Amino acid sequence: MRAVKNLLVLYTGGTIGMLQTPHGLAPAGGFEARMRAWLDTHPTPPRVHWRLQEMSPLLDSANMQQANWLAMQAAIVTAVTRDGHDGILLLHGTDTLAYSAAALSFLLLGLDVPVVLTGSMLPAGAPHSDAWDNLHGALALFESGLQSGVQLYFAGQLLHGARASKLRSEAFDAFAAPARHREGSRASALPAILGYAQPRVPVKLAVLPVYPGLQAEQVQALVVSGVRGLLLECYGSGTGPSEDAALMQALQKARQGGVLIAAISQCIEGSVLFDTYAAGSRLRETGLVSGGGMTREAALGKLFALLGAGLDIDTAERWFALDLCGERVA
After folding, report:
1. Are 304 and 204 spatial neighbours (Cβ–Cβ below 8 Å)?
2. Set 15, 118, 239, 286: catalytic member
3. Where would I find the L-asparaginase N-terminal domain in this sequence (predicted)?
4. Does the domain made of 192-320 have the CATH classification 3.40.50.300?
């Protein structure tokens, strides 16, 4: 835990800086001037030194893509290793805030600075907005001291970057870290290929929920599309229609064909424990790797970081099964 002396505020867009247009709210530049003007009027402004950098283009976070994750990673690494910043505050839209927090948790492994993501449900300047409270609270955390790693701050809560999810679309306390069963083995050391300096490339990934009526043809179509990683959202503790021979065969062939298939629970407070039910054991036998208690956001971000680093499927599976930054183990 250490106080930050030279903070970079990285503004990516999102509701917090949006202004009204004829087509509705849209990201707008010039947020640094608005932020400084507001802090100048605050009776107790945080005293941390900061500068603001705008990403280009500014985004409504509904448009966030893997390439934007990589651009944020590059900007953060440059700010720390070249420009001497010892903390990063990333302003981001709420739709994909938890996805970006999770992805950056794995893209910035080994970077010894605190990175905090925040945003707001209402634009700064709107009546009764939560924007300035979230911004002021995050700045105060940097002043008082934070541990290294990626975290998400919202509505007074500081959440682990790879455990948070957006649970509400209107309330100010929109984010939480669902209570999930966490156990497993921590990685004893991280190889350089998983560190923050390792280049990544975009990867075709897919998320497929299990539901009554899921067909083998749907898995086959994803394989044909070229996906390298498939996140299967199973029932409860990791079960699915294990008596559907065609579906089981499609999953097995996909794994044999080089697709990493990971299983998580579709329950908000669930986790995969394959051995609890025979239906789960049969799923595992097709070649699925358990995501334990990881959220969708964490599992997707982890798949991206591993496969995007160029790991082969067997190596990626081994690292996926280990805890890298607190995503699997409490």
Report:
1. no
2. 15
3. 7-180
4. no
